[in-house]
Structure formats: C-alpha cells, structure tokens
Specification:
The chain is mostly helical. It is built from 8 helices and 2 strands; from the N terminus they run ααααααβααβ. α1 crosses α3, α2 runs antiparallel to α3 and α3 packs across α4.
Length: 134
C-alpha cells in the first residue's frame, strides 16, 4: 500500500529546501488575501514558513520574542498586528512593501472590497513582500 503524505509536510519540505520559495509562497498568499481577506490563510502560511526555517524557537530568537508569545500570536483567532507581522516577516528574511495596483485590480467589484471603502483611483496601493537586499 502506498503511503500518502500530508500537503503541509510536502510544503514545509519544499520551503526548507528552497528558502527563496518561501518569499514566493508568502507573496502568493498575500495576493490572495488582497482579494479574499482570509487572515487565517496568511497566518497559516507564516506558520509553515516559520516551521521551514527552524520552528518557533528559532524565529523567537531572531525576533527577540518569547516563544510562548510568538505561539500565542500565531494561534490567535485575531490577525496579528502589523508591527508584529513586520517583525516576524523580517526574521523570515522578507518585508512588507507597498506597490501600485493595476486599474482593474482597484475596482471594488472585483477586489472583494466593500465599495464604500474602495481606494481612490489616485491612491491605489497593495501590500507585497520583498526580499531585503542585504
């Protein structure tokens, strides 16, 4: 009988083998978040990348956070605060960045955004991840 592996185990194995793939993975998840607003998917993706880069203990050292606090942040039903997410992403070797949207991406009807809070055409912005060039 063939033994099947869990998707998450395969994902973590691939992210461990190719750390630059983690940036692309997080980028794709953030782009999905822009449309679907699923913060749980973002947290799950960050957890997978953390696991691929040594786990909670290692990332807690890099962020100067208590491992228990980091675990609580990642297991909370609430999305992490932007400053906390930025600290974690920095420890993972990436950062948040703002870039302009294409006109068709800014249309509230297609972006899943309530039209009453859609960005003004002249201030189109999107959150992206970028690799630090250090």
């Amino acid at each position: 009988m063939r033994k099947y592996r869990k998707w998450r185990d395969i994902l973590i194995e691939q992210l461990t083998a190719d750390p630059t793939a983690a940036i692309g993975f997080l980028q794709a998840v953030m782009e999905d978040y822009q449309v679907f607003r699923n913060s749980a998917a973002v947290v799950s993706a960050v957890q997978a990348v953390i696991e691929s880069q040594g786990g909670i203990a290692e990332i807690a050292k890099r962020t100067n956070m208590d491992p228990q606090t980091l675990t609580e942040v990642l297991s909370s039903e609430n999305a992490p605060r932007v400053d906390t997410l930025t600290t974690i992403l920095t420890a993972l070797g990436c950062r948040l960045a703002i870039e302009p949207l294409k006109a068709e991406d800014c249309d509230a009807e297609h972006s899943g955004v309530d039209a009453s809070v859609a960005p003004i055409k002249s201030t189109k912005a999107e959150i992206t991840l970028a690799r630090d060039n250090k």
